[in-house]
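Q: Convert this sequence to structure tokens.
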Amino acid sequence: MTENLPTPDEAFALLLAGNQRFVTGASEHPNQDAARRAQTAPAQSPFSVLFGCSDSRLAAEIIFDRGLGDLFVVRTAGHVMGPEVLGSIEYGVSVLGAPLVVVLGHDACGAVGAARAAVQDGTTVGGYVRDVIERVTPSVLSARAAGRLEDQDFIAEHICHTVDLLLERSRVLAEAVEAGRVAVVGLSYQLADGNAQLITTRGLSLESRELAS
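A:
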């Protein structure tokens, strides 16, 4: 069910428009009725893969004002990646035909904060939470090495790092971007006002980048 999918720029514009409706309190809640449920039951054709942090305040369909069948959502704490995440994103692009991949981070991210504390004062945690923190640590180290020490700097660096890793590790995704079939963008969500800000992009037109700035 990949017919009539938007271009990468059109898909990004749909996301931006939905987020602005959410920010202004004018959400339309599209594609959330019984008709849409019936339409998408046989197959799905999402216009975007959204790889975001698992934070409970980052419910993708709400903050982008979308509905059933619109977004193929993959979420982990701190949007850290493993083979399952990469496979899920590749499935959304190569099988479902989604023209857009979004990496969605946010301010006050617990995983980034924990990685920052681990680097600064050696604070550690147990269990598999430690694995999450270790995967975020390279982003914290990179920001510190560049002298970027504000909270938003660490968040932005981790979003950029995740976008880079996606394209480095997934040949499927990298080739789709190079061919112009897919764009990858990194967004930072602001918890207080609900706005999703563009941090980095691969494959969007200049007009789309300016629209988001």
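The chain has nine helices and five strands.
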